[in-house]
Amino acid sequence: MGVPLRQQIAVGSYLIKQKLKGVKKYPLVLMLEPLFRCNLACAGCGKIAHPEDILDKRLSYEECMQAVDECGAPMVSIPGGEPLLHKEMPQIVQGIIARKKYIYLCTNALLLKKRINDYAPSPYLTFSVHLDGLKERHDTSVCQDGVFDRAVEAIKLALDKGFRVTVNCTLFQGETPEDVAEFLDYAMELGVEGATIAPGFSYEHAPQQDVFIKTQDTKKLFRGIFDIGKKLKRKWTLNHSALYLDYLAGNQDYKCTPWGNPTRNVFGWQKPCYLLADEGYVNTFNELLEDTPWEKYGSSSNPKCAQCMAHCGYEATAVEDTLQNPWKAFMVSMKGPRTTGEMVSEPVPQWEEEKKSPKKLSDIPVTVTNKN
Fold this sequence. Notes:
By secondary structure, this protein is α/β, with parallel strands linked by helices. It has helices at residues 5-20, 52-55, 61-71, 89-98, 112-115, 135-141, 147-160, 177-190, 215-231, 242-248, 285-291, 311-324, 326-335, 350-356; strands spanning 29-32, 75-78, 102-107, 125-130, 164-171, 194-199, 263-265, 268-270, 281-282.
């Protein structure tokens, strides 16, 4: 795990406090999305499908600070859109640092070289650079040539200036374990702190729908990746809990914990999570917790969630399991995810069960014939 000890202690202390206070639903990472506008048009992104008037909207510095304070999560991820397009982003970052929250500023890095002097290295700030594989794969994913080279140049510059840097890799259809392993080798050679790696979510509004991986294919892919890592004795630093990686390999039966990564964007607090954009919004974080019908969501409860294994939904579940079963987590951490044997069985989706279950007598329509 590439997370510095200082951050591990801070997050661990926060988790223990929630447990001692008996809090059932608590946030782990605030997804602070201050704009949807981007300078790329990636094939698997549903964010830039909004009309121009929405793409022009921004959360102000004050709104961002209110969200951070209201939520109280120890970590803040700032995705988008492209956050470096936001004119107040340096001020927003400084305000979050002043609150001693750990920030992952997610960027495609096209503007990082130009804007890097607006920021100062801090143990609380990490540039999380979007790289979806090596050069050809990444440039195809973002639908623009030359982006990979510019991103790598920016990564090297940020590292030279003393910034914390990670790479954020989303996997799509057509990936092979060998290609992903080669990418991880390259990322480690760059000297980044670690890599976040997860399957892409099938956004309804994404311009291309055939790029997303199905659940079973995801599990097979990750087993293949981890198997290569074990055989070649690779020491990839992945910014995930051991049990989340074990879940990706098909060895854990987890339900989504959507409140673990709540989202605040230009519309408000998004129900139920960062990935589903058409379920409604509320004005406050407390409303989000209290008014969201959480039971309606998850891979077995909602068709929209059926293929999702994203870390913004399942990492918090894995962290909770780690707290409940530290020995299990330790053993997986030492041995790595299991890559052979039976995978955990997937539950029958609720909507499929409803199709199979016999109708009650009261549900059968009755036709009354008037003989008079």
